[in-house]
Specification:
Low-confidence stretches: none
Mean pLDDT: 95
Number of helices: 12
Structural class: mainly alpha
Radius of gyration: 17 Å
Shape: globular
Distance between the termini: 53 Å
Protein name: Fic family protein
Biased composition (Low complexity): 124-137
Order of helices and strands: HHHHHHHHHHHH
CATH class: Mainly Alpha
Region (Disordered): 118-138
Domain Fido: 96-238
Number of strands: 0
Largest sheet: none
Length: 260
């Protein structure tokens, strides 16, 4: 069977965007600060990524407020918990992605929905639409598409770049809204986890969420939703740009640490 993502990797403009993002990550990994402070850079990148992910959901708080533990918005707290959970979930992501997604939702949606709904797929056809993407697919269609996504995560794709897989994982979770709450936070956490576990950013240094905040996020997802080759390519290229912007954020962290 042919690789289901290989065709996406060959769409016009995608290969060039993926290569540019990979080169940016490679340059970041050569930064001298990372010889001694890689864990600290990863921690700071995760904090900035969580802040950006919450901001995309409309909960925009200053970074200093997070450092002082003064941001009590449940969306912000959920994004912080999801970010903190990624390091523990990495080894399970390839083997049991459904389990990881359930856990991410459990920590991201706490305080936003009832205890009985945490980690459980939605059964209602309707789902909130915070980004103005339009009605979500029905619960039945969502379940079917999630099966397809899990199949991809379970090893159906072999040769496609990690960034292409991450872009598809992110978009499917964001547009399907499989849980009905905190789906955007889960989607962006899953993208970052894919970039880490599939080898593009193994040390989790790239603040890709910051990149998404700087780009026309909803517009990119609408392009993906169109289902056209051009629309899907636009979204993957946007994810590649988000990685490059996330690299820029990580370099800024490294430079600040170097200055002391």
């Amino acid at each position: 069977m042919s690789d289901p993502l290989a065709a996406l990797a060959r769409l016009p403009g995608v290969s060039e965007a993926v290569d540019a993002a990979r080169e940016a990550v490679d340059r970041l990994y050569r930064h001298r600060v990372l010889r001694r402070a890689s864990p600290a850079v990863s921690t700071e990148s995760s904090l900035r990524g969580a802040r950006a992910s919450a901001a995309i959901e409309g909960a925009d708080v200053p970074l200093d407020a997070l450092r002082r533990d003064e941001a009590h918005d449940p969306v912000v707290q959920g994004a912080l918990r999801a970010s903190a959970e990624l390091g523990r979930l990495g080894p399970t992501w390839r083997k049991a992605p459904r389990q990881v997604l359930a856990r991410l939702h459990t920590v991201a949606a706490a305080g936003l929905t009832g205890q009985e709904a945490l980690g459980r797929p939605r059964t209602a056809d309707a789902a909130p639409d915070p980004l103005g993407l339009g009605a979500a697919p029905s619960a039945e269609e969502t379940a079917a598409r999630m099966e397809r996504l899990i199949w991809l995560m379970d090893g159906a794709t072999k040769a496609a770049p990690a960034l292409v897989l991450a872009a598809v994982v992110h978009a499917e979770l964001a547009v399907l809204r499989p849980f009905g709450t905190a789906d955007g936070v889960v989607a962006r956490a899953a993208e970052r986890l894919t970039l880490v576990e599939y080898g593009l950013d193994p040390k989790s240094l790239v603040a890709v969420e910051v990149g998404h905040l700087e780009l026309p996020y909803a517009e990119g997802l609408r392009a993906y939703l169109s289902g056209t080759p051009e629309g899907v390519a636009q979204w993957i290229q946007q994810c590649a740009s988000a990685v490059s912007l996330g690299v820029r954020e990580a370099v800024a962290i490294c430079e600040a640490m170097q200055r002391g």
